[in-house]
Specification:
There is one protein chain. Helix 1 packs parallel to helix 8, helix 2 packs across helix 4 and helix 4 runs parallel beside helix 5. The chain contains eight helices and no strands.
């Protein structure tokens, strides 16, 4: 699952409009227009014989910025504590897994509890224990960290759609 696919599924699950997408990107520090958002959200298929020139590829840093903007959009701007930098550091290393980042940041943005997240997975028929979920939400490098696979992230976004779209 690539970054464009993650954005497409997240937008669908939470019914985010194009203008809201532009605003969220702006809050995250990326300036895009509505036509550019449409090009980012253009779906490509693996069996296409030609590369879609209309699509704008969403980089890891763009998706990270979008998720940071999504947190600000949903929860409001947080005032930095004394001695803390004004802008958040990019939360993604070069080898980082976007799926783990997606779970963490959507959890923060929507103020989901562990129980809420377990219910979301349960809605799509996926049994997840608190320990497994905790391992997915840990910082990369922690001894109990577990990488989140595409199927897991896809089911999470599908569960969000069920919860928020009915």
């Amino acid at each position: 699952m690539d970054n464009n696919d993650i954005l497409i599924r997240l937008r669908y699950a939470l019914e985010i409009k194009n203008k809201e997408m532009v605003e969220i990107f702006k809050l995250g520090g990326v300036g895009v227009s509505v036509p550019e958002v449409v090009k980012i959200l253009t779906k490509t298929y693996d069996d296409d014989e030609y590369e879609n020139e209309e699509q704008i590829k969403c980089t890891h840093s763009m998706l990270d910025s979008f998720l940071n903007g999504f947190i600000i959009y949903k929860r409001g701007k947080q005032e930095p504590k004394p001695g803390q930098p004004n802008l958040p550091e990019p939360s993604l290393k070069t080898s980082g897994n976007m799926n783990n980042l997606l779970l963490k940041k959507v959890k923060i943005a929507l103020a989901l509890t562990t129980e809420d997240m377990l219910d979301i997975f349960d809605n799509v028929g996926l049994r997840v224990t608190k320990g497994e979920l905790g391992a997915l939400l840990r910082k990369e490098g922690h001894k109990n960290y577990k990488e989140c696979g595409d199927n897991f992230a896809r089911n999470f976004l599908k569960g969000l759609a069920i919860k928020y779209r009915g």
